[in-house]
Amino acid sequence: MANALGFGPVTLRQGLLRGLLGPGAPHEAFPDPEMESALTEATASVEQELSTRFRVTRFRGHLGPGPVPALPKGEVAEWEGPYPWPSPLPGEGFLRLPTRVRPVVEVLGAQVVLPGGGTGRVELPATWFRFEAWAGEILLAPALGAAPLMAVGLPMTFPTLFAGRLPQSVLLAYRAGLGTTGIQRWPKLRRLVLLRAALRLLPALALEMNPGLLTSLSADGLSQARTSGYALKELDERLAIEVEELKASLLDLWEGPSLGVL
């Protein structure tokens, strides 16, 4: 079974961990389900750390109350909570939002949620937005700042829309994710997922090599300290260093100074 990147147990057996898992290796019979689980967890971990998705995904905003509705069957989509207004980013008078997932592929529109009675929500069309894909930033900038709202059923212009009423939040609708083209553009991502998966497997492999391995768990249950008897300690440390270096290099490229809003 392959994950979102096409990785499966054979990828680890013939690649990064072939000396431990490949044909004739000490752990040749290591179970496939454990490797599949490690790859799935590693994929999700990298997506969260880099604020991305490997598949292009549609994001829908949900404010509540109540649980999120069911997503259309077969659609690659996720629900997101509201974005704040005003934004934490300066926008020279316009709303500028950092999306939670990048690269942005398409802005589909937004709903502005207003307090009080009357017009509770205002639909803003996709044509009012510009975005920087890799930085994951969306800029609301209607032409000349005075775009008419008649098209959305309101007899007013943009500057008068919020007069005396500060919006509570914004519900964004957009598509974001790497897709095949993005994954090919950044081959380091594939290496990063494999490294994460390997780091999840090494403790189990070491335990098979040394069943008497002693470990201690922190009080919160989140961190584990391994004794000097940890058979794969040197490999674990080397891979962990490479993970941090790869992640830092990708973040530097995606968040560099040249990636301003278009």
Your description of this structure?
With 262 residues, the protein is of the alpha+beta class. The chain is built from 7 helices and 11 strands. The protein has helices spanning 9-14, 18-21, 32-49, 158-161, 179-185, 188-209, 233-254; strands spanning 57-61, 77-80, 83-84, 96-98, 104-113, 121-124, 129-132, 137-140, 169-176, 215-217, 224-226. The strands form 3 sheets. Strands 1, 2, 3, 5, 6 and 9 form a 6-stranded mixed β-sheet that branches. β10 (215-217) and β11 (224-226) form a beta hairpin. α3 (32-49) packs across α6 (188-209). It is elongated and about 65 Å long. Mean pLDDT is 80; it is low at 144-157 and 258-262.
- Helical proportion? 25-40%
Range of strand content: 15-25%
User: Low-confidence spans: pLDDT under 50, at least 5 residues?
Assistant: 144-157, 258-262
Anisotropy-based shape? elongated
How much is the average pLDDT?
80
Number of helices: 7
| H/E element sequence | HHHEEEEEEEEHEHHEEH
Q: Sheet with the most strands?
A: 6 strands, mixed
Category by helix and strand content = alpha+beta
* Number of DSSP strand runs: 11
Cα distance spanning the termini: 40 Å
Radius of gyration computed on alpha carbons: 24 Å
